[in-house]
Design brief:
- The protein is built from 8 helices and no strands.
- It is mainly alpha-helical.
- It has 2 domains: about 70 residues, no CATH class; about 60 residues, no CATH class.
- The longest helix is centred in the N-terminal third of the chain and has 19 residues.
- It is elongated and about 55 Å long.
- The protein starts with a helix and ends with a helix.
Length: about 140
Amino acid sequence: MELKKRFVKSFIWSVALYGSETWTIKAADKKHLEAFEMWIWRRMLKISWRDHKTNEEVLRMVEEERTLITTIRRRQKTWIGHILRGNGLLKDIMEGKFEGRRPRGRKRKSMLDDLKGGRTYQEMKRVAMNRELWRVTDP
């Protein structure tokens, strides 16, 4: 069992989460990611959907907790902190320092909107400049 779990964590999660630092996760995406995580654990244990096992039972059998979403959030926070501390094109894009007009309609939800957590962009930028403080703040 432990070997199977290590295979899942090293091979499956690394491929599934490739580039997750830049994802904008909507509610539907979060639901699909959680379903994918449970599907992987069920496949590992060879549990059929006809067995009527709840997700909690499957997690108890695997002796794991749901970690996919928290892993994505942690990766995003690390990457954003790196970008905010530097000076480059990505930082300019995030701050919207470009000429021209925005297209009609509602503004798209950005990854920063997910990570702000009630803070302003300037507060987030100030905290990111101090690496130790950034690491201990919640994403």
